[in-house]
Amino acid sequence: MSKSIEDRIADHARHLGFDAIGFCDATLPEEARTRLRQFVEDGRHGTMSWMEQRIDQRGDPKALWPEVRSVISLGLSYAPKADPAETLDQPDTGTISVYARHRDYHDVLKGMLKHLAQFVVRQDVGGDGTQVKVFVDTAPVMEKPLAEQAQLGWQGKHTNVVSRDHGSWLLLGEIYTTLDLTPSPPRAGSCGSCTRCLTACPTDAFPRPYALDARRCIAYLTIEHDGPIPVEFRKSMDNRIYGCDDCLNACPWNRFAATSRHMKLQPRADLMAPRLDDLARLDDAGFRSFFSGSPIKRIGRNRFVRNVLIALGNSRNTDHLALIETLTGDENPMVAEAAEWARAELLGNEDNE
């Protein structure tokens, strides 16, 4: 008995290294669209104006590409070997989100998706020329609701996808296609009464389960937000200098997640616990060189050093004062302001000792 087209695609996806694959119709439930509209209307997207600019396309795959009939949702595990929170107890080092400790996942995933998309095109059974488009977090695509529809997992109370097999550690990508594919059968799984991800958040960024206020989220503040970080959140950042994994790491489903087997997603040794004083000294050229091939590069030196200075201010180590002093005169006002704050924090700690 010959395999179905879905089985052939799934087999090839696993051969390429994907850890999860599912299929769904190119439609989104009204609940997902409503949740997106409410998120934007409430202003919880902060300064991410791109979310509202193409909200219609984001809420309907056919508005983005009218010819699409099916979506192939793919997941790549990046489950860490070590506890990502262990560096939070090392105040002179920086804590970087797990997904950013290795090569830029956009490049890794997109390359794999393109290979799979070529295979999908070759499966054309109608002779009318199958068309495909691939997406990795760079287009108006609601990847998490689509992954849920394709049975990769479900959107947890922290709003990220939770997988029975991979916990909260899945990178997502999609292939839109003109093929009519059979949707994947339902798989059981839910958060139940668990609220560990909500209580783990250091800035109370979840006004309620399944809802996120990005304006309070450390991941948003350290990556997307361009400008001074609100003072009310700075102490809670501790030494988190790029992203935050607290809500993901708290998920009990992670106990089923095996460490990622993908070589390109193995962490760089120098990003596991980088010294804050070394990072604070980076100029623009040094920053670009050090973070070449890393997703961190996209936020630029100024935003990154701003984050590092806040971590230095939280370190309680007055040995950093001389370095911080040099940055109070930085030509970038955002960096200079963060340095002034860090200096005041350390001097205040010194006075209280």
UniProtKB/TrEMBL annotation:
Its EC number is 1.17.99.6. [4Fe-4S] cluster 1 binds at residues 191, 194, 197, 251. Binds 2 [4Fe-4S] clusters per monomer. Cob(II)alamin binds at residues 58, 137, 161, 172, 244-245. GO terms for molecular function: 4 iron, 4 sulfur cluster binding; cobalamin binding; epoxyqueuosine reductase activity; metal ion binding. This is Epoxyqueuosine reductase. It comes from the Bacteria. Residues 181-211 form the 4Fe-4S ferredoxin-type domain. GO terms for biological process: tRNA queuosine(34) biosynthetic process. It comes from Asaia bogorensis NBRC 16594. It is found in: Cytoplasm. Belongs to the QueG family. The gene is queG. GO terms for cellular component: cytoplasm. Keywords: 4Fe-4S, Cobalamin, Cobalt, Cytoplasm, Iron, Iron-sulfur, Metal-binding, Oxidoreductase, Queuosine biosynthesis, tRNA processing. Catalyzes the conversion of epoxyqueuosine (oQ) to queuosine (Q), which is a hypermodified base found in the wobble positions of tRNA(Asp), tRNA(Asn), tRNA(His) and tRNA(Tyr).
